[in-house]
Structures are given as C-alpha cells and as structure tokens.
Amino acid sequence: MSDAAAPALIDVHGLTKRYGGRTVVDHVDLRVEKGRIHGFLGPNGSGKTTTIRMLCGLLTPDDGGGTCLGHDIRTQSRLIKRQVGYMTQRFGLYEDLSIEENLDFVARVYAVPDRRAKVTATLEQLGLATRRTQLAGSLSGGWKQRLALAACLIHSPQLLLLDEPTAGVDPAARRDFWDQIHDLAAAGLTVLVSTHYMDEAERCHELAYIAYGKLLTQGTVQQVIDSAGLVTWAVAGTNLVEVGHRLREAKGIRTVAPFGSTLHVSGDNEQAIRDALAAVNRPDLKANPIEPSLEDVFIALMQDAKDNFATEKP
Ligand SMILES: Nc1ncnc2c1ncn2[C@@H]1O[C@H](COP(=O)(O)OP(=O)(O)O)[C@@H](O)[C@H]1O
Ligand SMILES: [Mg+2]
C-alpha cells in the first residue's frame, strides 16, 4: 500500500476526461512511488491510454490534476516530457534504419549529451549490441519491442510510461521484457505499464484496475484479491458448460468462468455458493473452495462495473 513517506512520482487526483459529453476517464486517483512497477489493467476502451496521456501532459484533463515527477501536469508538461520515456501503443521506428541508427536518431532529437557513448551503452544494456546493424524493419516483434524500449531510455528518463508494450509479442519475448523491466526498476526507474495479460499483472509491485473510466481497485496483488471480498470455488465434473449456465442464474453468484477443466464460481459468501450448487443438483460434481485468482477478481469487478454503468444511464 501507499507509504506516505515514500516520494510519489505520480500523484494525481480526480483526473477526468470527457469526449462529446461522454466521460471516458472519471475522477481517477493514482499514486505511483519511486522504483515501483505499477500495472495499469482494464478492458479495451476503459481509459488507460487517455489517462497515460494526461499524466505526461499530452492531454489536458477536464477536471482534477496533480503532479508527475513533481511537475504540474496542467502547466509543466514540457518539463515532464523531458524526464519521461513514453512507449505508445503503436510505437514508431524507422524501418529502413538499423537498430543503432534508430537509437542515434532519437538521441539527436533529445539532444542527449555524449550521444555516441550513450547509444553504445544503451545497445549493451538491452542486449542489442550484436544486432546493431540490423534494419529495424527486419526484426521480429520481440526485438522491435526491445528497440522501442531502448529508444524510450536513451534520454535517461526517471519514469517509464509503457502503453501495452507486449501486445502481440510471443510469450518468451514477453518474459525477457519483464525481466528487463525488473532490472530497470531495481536500478531506480519507476514504471507505469498498461497490460491485458494476467501473468504480467502478477509481476507488478502494485496494480490499478480501471473499467468504464473508473478506477475500481488499487494495491498489491494480495491487497487487490483480499479487498474484493470474493469467495471462489473450483467445480470439476462433466457437462460443465450447462452447469455454468445454471450457476450464473443463481442468486448471490457474481461470476462463473471456465479455467482449464474446472469452473471458477465466485460469490459474495460461501452460503450463496453452497445454495447455488445444491440448486444445480449434481451430486457427482467435485467442488471445493480455492483462493480467488486475480482474474476471478477482475472479472467480478468488471461485472459489477457493467451493472452500475447500465443502471446509471437515463
Ligand atoms: N480523441 C478522442 N475522441 C473521442 N473519443 C475518444 C478519444 N480518445 C479516446 N476516446 C474514447 O475514450 C475511451 C477510452 O479510450 P482509451 O483511453 O484509448 O482506452 P484504453 O486505452 O483503455 O483502451 C474509448 O471509448 C475511446 O473510444
Ligand atoms: Mg489503450
């Protein structure tokens, strides 16, 4: 949880953005401490990119505000941009330039002091040195993403804002990428990273989950799971699809989700789950309580948010 003594690199309150009368980011409070890897989770269209753009001063909030790297996000975006490495969802590289030429180009744009040495050091740091002459356009997804990360680091930022950096990258490259992120954080860099992947969420020090523009929960993986107050059972047996349909209809059941060859059934309390299973009347099913996973919690939170969103409409 937030340690009030630790300096917050991102500290914003009530951040709000509206487009055409629709509120796409709705009073979001976010605090990210130095040296932490903060995951930013949420379904497509939930407001992650919009929030990130407000944090680095690329977009002005309609309401709320705060600081990023100690600078006001409304009035000091120039200072913020200088110290932030922002990897956009569709990062742009020059395909007909080599890895080294791409980095050298970015270093020139940022007027990086001692440019040649910095480019060489960054190539080494990210394991790109042996491929320095390869054209960016000929790289696989994983290597392109590594080059994009190098480009974000060339001006020695203090904060990395990574917007779905691993979308479409294969699992091995994703693992390498996360090892790299942890190395960078250990060296003092702070990271806010948006992602869809649950395994990545579990590798973050802290998480924030947003849906329909509203921040629904924030904390460590364990805090997020505990604060949801969800009771989850794993159900195994035959005809689980039909069982799932019937359980979904039952009172007090919040979510039913298939996980491999079992169903995860989540509710507000144990009695609700026992009653629902009794109503299904399948004594052959094997059912036992488990610790809810992060995914169970996010599915339940999103379900609640969807229900609230639907009832709020006129
Ligand atoms: N410039 C814009 N004009 C109008 N609507 C926008 C604009 N940018 C984003 N939106 C809308 O805001 C919502 C949140 O978008 P976004 O922040 O990109 O979500 P995410 O990154 O979580 O997928 C979406 O419904 C999107 O269509
Ligand atoms: Mg996005």
Question: Quick recap of the structure?
Answer:
The protein contains 11 helices and 14 strands. The chain is of the alpha/beta class.
Please explain how this structure is put together.
The protein is of the alpha/beta class. The chain folds into two domains: 8-225, P-loop containing nucleotide triphosphate hydrolases (Rossmann fold, 3-Layer(aba) Sandwich); 231-291, ACT domain (Alpha-Beta Plaits). Helix content is 37%, strand content 28%. It is built from eleven helices and 14 strands. The chain has helices at 48-55, 77-83, 99-109, 115-125, 141-153, 171-186, 198-201, 221-227, 240-249, 270-280, 294-312, and strands at residues 8-19, 22-33, 37-41, 63-68, 71-72, 84-87, 159-163, 190-195, 206-211, 214-219, 231-236, 253-259, 262-267, 286-290. Strands 6-7-8-3-9-10 form a six-stranded mixed sheet, with helices on both faces. A four-stranded antiparallel sheet has the order 2-1-4-5, covered by helices on one side. A four-stranded antiparallel sheet has the order 12-13-11-14, sandwiched between helices. Strand 1 (8-19) and strand 2 (22-33) form a beta hairpin. The protein is globular.
Keywords:
314 residues, Alpha-Beta Plaits, 2 domains, 28% strand, binds adenosine-5'-diphosphate, binds magnesium ion
Going across the major beta sheet, what is the strand order?
6-7-8-3-9-10
Please outline the major beta sheet. Answer: 6 strands, mixed
Average pLDDT over all residues? 92
Rg result: 22 Å
Strand proportion: 25-35%
